[in-house]
């Protein structure tokens, strides 16, 4: 029998000020939180142009405003699910649509979620739940009902936060949360770690995040106590105190025993961050930051995603942590880098950024955005690959999901758009001292200065095609404040000029420029876009050791069978000091964003393109880690 550890009741410290007043519910005062170092700009403040905007609009038009079968996803809550956890689909679809509305303020993106939210509210059961399971069967562990409730809450929360603060929506969230608290908890209730479909039931504990979001909206102490129960009594999974394992510096692929499911683990830790915010207990912040560091160092591949099926967890469909940073050239790998993992990693990194101001979190967001995220999206915009390979057939749509009204709906099709919707949210932020520029896609951003005035930032660039970026600063009146610009860790030699004067910078930091800004002031940033040559990591299968990869700025290059029939032939790349003199050329294929002539050691060259634009949806192949010829044998 496993010993059960009981922790003292959590202390809500001074970072939280809970309003004393009428019972929590519609109209209850929100919990006031201590402000993070970096805060998001208000809705509609950032408007992209150029590189990323095309991908965002492709997804909006062909997925969220295109094929998503909203009415059929609602119908599951009336008639039941056809496979476990299928009730997650509605919340995920609505969540990304609401986040896109936050960005675009497109009236159609308001009408669509308004209609489907109203439809969903008509499915409420007699006990107030919104569920694919009858009241008598609740909570439905094998059906994945707590996971489904999590996404219903997140979908409704996204609508309430970003589209319309409808009291009926808030009341529906409260009713669903109250049902959950009444049904799940310490005995005689059903333990949360006995709910779920997986080996350790980690997925059920991920309801932590929306419960804490609702706590912050209402101040209702039962929600905070429920969160305390998940974190401090049960620890996140059955038989494994996952949060403490992370705190104790356990390697990610060992956390949770036989089921270190990457997506669900990251989702759980999104909730742990919120728990830290409301308790102020430094243990939980340390647990999240330790997991972040270990995932970043040991799991994330060159395209910004992680997880695989070799060598430790061959039966988790490539969705478990597997020491993937070291194993990414393992030729036995058949499934790796689930899109749900990459998007949730991106979202966790955005939380790390806000919580700490650490620019490494943006380096990770950028790496995934320009490679793994865009590289997983269908060229037609109406879906995402379930998993991705670095060598082989890059895309693979097969995984958990079902055909709903002739649309192949998977968790990754639903999560991919959320990753895109987060990019303008992260691109420019604010701080107490002034704006923070994180991503260098061309855009305009409207920010508030420390004096409460408005300033407009106009970022002109064709990044990542080149590293030349110009920022024009237009405050409504001259004012002294700081502008922070992220200097990527990969940019070894960066030039920064402000008003023509050079400013010294360091890779992997923010350049913090404090001065009195006037309308028309100019910042000129030139990032180091030299192409870097990387040797393959040394994993468990040594057959993958003799490979190299090329990265130019944030963009990973690859050989594309659509362009090059010799795409997987061994080659020696000509390099000097770790850099390769690649030459940009006009793309041969209309699908390619960028193409380069890459010199080889024998004096010839090969053609390579950006990883993201390689179209393998027709079964063609990619080669990202390039095999080198075997060493010459001595006579």
Spell out the blueprint of helices and strands.
Elements: E1 16-17, E2 32-33, E3 39-40, E4 46-48, H1 51-67, H2 70-79, H3 88-104, H4 107-121, H5 145-162, H6 167-183, H7 202-205, H8 208-218, H9 221-234, E5 236-237, E6 240-241, H10 242-247, H11 262-279, H12 282-298, H13 324-327, H14 339-356, H15 360-376, E7 387-388, E8 391-392, E9 395-396, E10 401-404, E11 407-410, H16 411-427, E12 428-431, E13 434-437, E14 443-448, E15 454-461, E16 468-475, E17 479-487, E18 495-498, E19 501-502, E20 509-517, E21 521-526, E22 531-535, E23 547-552, E24 555-560, E25 579-580, E26 583-585, E27 595-599, E28 605-610, E29 622-623, E30 626-627
Parallel strand pairs: 13-17
Antiparallel strand pairs: 1-2, 3-12, 4-14, 5-6, 7-9, 8-29, 10-11, 12-13, 14-15, 15-16, 16-21, 17-20, 18-19, 18-21, 22-23, 22-25, 23-24, 23-30, 24-28, 24-29, 26-27, 27-28
Account of the protein in words:
By secondary structure, this protein is an alpha+beta fold. The protein has three domains: 414 residues, Alpha/alpha barrel (Glycosyltransferase); 95 residues, Immunoglobulin-like, CATH 2.60.40; 97 residues, no CATH class. It has 16 helices and 30 strands. Strands 8, 22, 23, 24, 25, 26, 27, 28, 29 and 30 form a ten-stranded antiparallel sheet that branches. Strands 4-14-15-16-21-18-19 form a seven-stranded antiparallel sheet, with helices on one face.
């Amino acid at each position: 029998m496993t010993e059960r550890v009981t922790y003292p009741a959590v202390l809500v410290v001074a970072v939280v000020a809970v309003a004393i007043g009428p019972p929590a519910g519609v109209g209850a005062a929100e919990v006031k939180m201590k402000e993070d170092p970096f805060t998001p700009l208000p809705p509609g403040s950032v408007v992209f142009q150029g590189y990323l905007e095309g991908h965002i609009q492709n997804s909006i038009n062909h997925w969220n405003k295109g094929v998503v079968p909203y009415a059929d996803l609602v119908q599951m809550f009336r008639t039941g699910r056809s496979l476990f956890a299928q009730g997650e689909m509605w919340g995920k679809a609505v969540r990304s649509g609401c986040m896109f509305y936050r960005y675009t303020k497109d009236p159609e993106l308001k009408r669509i979620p308004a209609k489907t939210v109203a439809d969903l509210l008509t499915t409420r059961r007699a006990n107030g739940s919104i569920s694919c399971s009858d009241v008598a069967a609740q909570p439905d562990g094998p059906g994945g009902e707590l996971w489904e409730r999590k996404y219903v809450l997140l979908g409704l929360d996204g609508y309430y936060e970003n589209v319309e603060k409808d009291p009926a929506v808030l009341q529906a969230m409260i009713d669903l949360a109250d049902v959950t608290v009444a049904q799940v908890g310490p005995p005689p209730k059903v333990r949360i770690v006995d709910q779920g479909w997986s080996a350790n039931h980690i997925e059920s504990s991920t309801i932590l995040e929306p419960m804490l979001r609702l706590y912050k909206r209402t101040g209702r102490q039962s929600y905070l106590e429920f969160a305390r129960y998940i974190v401090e009594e049960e620890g996140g999974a059955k038989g494994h105190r996952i949060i403490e394992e992370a705190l104790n510096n356990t390697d990610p692929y060992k956390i949770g025993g036989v089921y270190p499911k990457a997506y669900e683990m990251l989702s759980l830790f999104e909730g742990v961050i919120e728990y830290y915010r409301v308790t102020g207990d430094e243990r939980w912040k340390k647990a999240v930051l330790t997991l972040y560091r270990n995932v970043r160092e040991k799991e994330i591949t060159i395209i910004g995603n992680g997880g695989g099926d070799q060598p430790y967890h061959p039966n988790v469909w490539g969705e478990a942590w597997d020491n993937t940073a070291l194993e990414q050239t393992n030729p036995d790998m058949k499934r790796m880098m689930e899109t749900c993992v990459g998007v949730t990693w991106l979202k966790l990194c955005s939380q790390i950024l806000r919580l700490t101001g650490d620019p490494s979190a943006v380096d990770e967001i950028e790496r995934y955005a320009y490679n793994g995220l865009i590289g997983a999206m269908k060229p037609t915009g109406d879906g995402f690959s379930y998993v991705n390979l670095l060598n082989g057939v890059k895309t693979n749509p097969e995984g958990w999901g079902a055909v709903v009204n002739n649309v192949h709906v998977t968790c990754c099709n639903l999560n991919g758009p959320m990753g895109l919707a987060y990019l303008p949210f992260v691109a420019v932020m604010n701080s107490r001292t002034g704006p923070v520029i994180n991503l260098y896609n061309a855009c305009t951003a409207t920010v508030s200065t420390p004096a409460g005035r408005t300033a407009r930032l106009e970022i002109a660039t064709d990044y990542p095609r080149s590293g030349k970026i110009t920022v024009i600063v237009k405050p409504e009146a001259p004012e002294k404040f700081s502008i922070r610009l992220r200097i990527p860790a990969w940019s070894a030699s960066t030039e920064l000029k402000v008003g023509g004067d050079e400013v010294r910078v360091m890779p992997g930091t923010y350049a913090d420029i404090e001065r009195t800004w006037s309308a028309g002031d100019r910042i000129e940033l030139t990032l180091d876009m030299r192409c870097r040559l990387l040797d393959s990591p040394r994993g468990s299968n040594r057959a993958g050791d003799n490979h190299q990869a090329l990265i130019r700025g944030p963009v990973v290059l690859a050989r594309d069978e659509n362009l090059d029939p010799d795409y997987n032939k061994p080659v020696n790349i000509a390099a000097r000091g770790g850099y390769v003199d690649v030459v940009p050329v006009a793309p041969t294929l209309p699908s390619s964003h960028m193409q380069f002539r890459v010199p080889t050691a024998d004096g010839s060259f090969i053609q390579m393109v950006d990883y993201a634009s390689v179209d393998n949806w027709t079964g063609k192949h990619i080669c990202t880690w390039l095999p080198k010829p075997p060493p010459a044998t001595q006579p």
